[in-house]
Amino acid sequence: MAQQRPVRWITLTTARLAYEDERTQLRMDYTEAVLIITRTMCDQQGRMLEATEVKVPANRFEIGHGAELADDPHALFTPEELASEGIALII
Question: How confident is the model at residue 14, as a pLDDT?
Answer without folding.
Answer: 92
